[in-house]
Specification:
By secondary structure, this protein is α/β, with parallel strands linked by helices. The chain has 3 domains: 2-77, Winged helix-like DNA-binding domain superfamily/Winged helix DNA-binding domain (Arc Repressor Mutant, subunit A); 81-155 and 259-292, 3-Layer(aba) Sandwich (D-Maltodextrin-Binding Protein, domain 2); 157-254, Periplasmic binding protein-like II (D-Maltodextrin-Binding Protein, domain 2, 3-Layer(aba) Sandwich). Helices cover 37% and strands 27% of the residues. The chain has 11 helices and 15 strands. It has helices at 2-10, 13-20, 24-38, 54-77, 94-101, 105-111, 128-131, 163-168, 217-225, 239-244, 273-286; strands spanning 43-46, 49-52, 86-92, 115-121, 135-139, 147-155, 157-162, 183-188, 191-192, 195-199, 202-206, 213-214, 230-234, 247-250, 259-266. The strands form 4 sheets. Strands 7, 8, 9, 12, 13 and 14 form a 6-stranded mixed β-sheet that branches. A 5-stranded mixed β-sheet has the order 4-3-5-15-6, with helices on one face. A hairpin with a 2-residue loop joins strand 1 and strand 2. The longest helix is centred in the N-terminal third of the chain and has 24 residues, at 54-77. The radius of gyration is 23 Å and the shape is elongated.
């Protein structure tokens, strides 16, 4: 059942086998044996890959509920200090991970001394199942419905520039003024990432066309501090220098809706004890920061 669920979720026998730590041929034989036992076809191969049959989809939806109950029963059986041991693989965006996770890991490790954190910080999409990640932090609205999630923080996006830059350039007072400025852009696959705003109750947008471009948040921060222009970025990235006055926020009346931060984990059950301990710990930590409160 678990292998079948993995195949459906990954869309591949090879990926499912890798996630379960077995060879592909074993995964194929297990699913074939399951189909023989049930007397019906669950999966159909096509030029587009693997798809569930109508029966296979109904069986999958029933099986994940069964496995969820089993996972809960096992978690309850193993609940307690003994289960908070061994590695916990965590993935997080690089700048956010370095600024808000790493500084608090010492406290987490003191609380759970037998827990070993393996933190992967990178600005890329991490496939939890394929890469064996236990829990990940995702910034923004979620699109992968196969993952379980819990919102533990949110933040404001701010338009900022250094005090030195605004000493040389008049701060923008309306969205149209951005065309007159050097705008530091974050590079996405399709080009410069769009800047979203709220103009009263309406959404508004601006796409930078002039100014330097970078592919990571910390470089955007460094460029702002160097006086290279204006950026539209998470406020938490500049919280310290906004307090000191080294950086100024502009267009405060056009701040967009807050961006959510979720913890996500694979599977259809409640998180394991290790994942749950991690989530509860950092939910409490983030709540102490005004810029991250849910």
């Amino acid at each position: 059942m678990r292998i079948f669920v993995r195949v459906v979720e990954t869309g591949s026998f090879s990926k499912a086998a890798a996630a379960e730590g077995i060879v592909q041929s074993t995964a194929s034989k297990q699913v074939a044996a399951l189909e023989k036992h049930l007397g019906t076809q669950l999966l159909r191969r096509s030029s587009h890959g693997l798809n569930t049959t109508t029966t296979g989809r109904a069986y999958y939806e029933s099986v994940v509920k069964v496995l969820s109950e089993l996972d809960i029963a096992e978690a309850l059986a193993h609940d307690g200090r003994d289960s908070l041991t061994g590695p916990l693989r965590v993935a997080a965006p690089s700048a956010f991970g370095r600024q808000y996770l790493v500084p608090h890991l010492k406290m987490l490790m003191e609380r759970y001394p037998d827990l070993r954190i393996e933190l992967d910080v990178a600005d890329r999409y991490v496939n939890l199942i394929e890469e064996g990640v236990d829990v990940a932090l995702r910034i923004g609205h979620l699109s992968d419905s196969s993952l379980r999630a819990r919102r533990i923080a949110s933040f404001e996006v701010a338009t900022v520039g250094s005090a030195e830059y605004f000493a040389r350039h008049a701060p923008p007072r309306k969205l149209g003024d951005l065309e007159k400025h050097d705008c530091i852009a974050f590079m996405a696959k399709a080009g410069a990432r769009r800047w979203d705003f709220r103009d009263g109750k309406r959404a508004a947008a601006f796409t930078p066309s002039a100014g330097p471009r970078f592919n990571d948040a910390e470089s955007v921060r460094a460029a702002v501090l160097a006086g290279l222009g204006i950026a539209h970025a998470p406020r938490w990235l500049f919280e310290d220098v906004l307090r000191s006055g080294e950086v100024k926020q502009v267009l405060s009346s056009h701040v967009p809706l807050r961006i959510p931060v979720h913890t996500v984990w694979a599977g259809n059950a409640r998180p394991t004890n290790k994942v749950r301990a991690f989530i509860e710990f950092f939910a409490a930590i983030f709540a102490t920061f005004d810029c991250l409160k849910p």
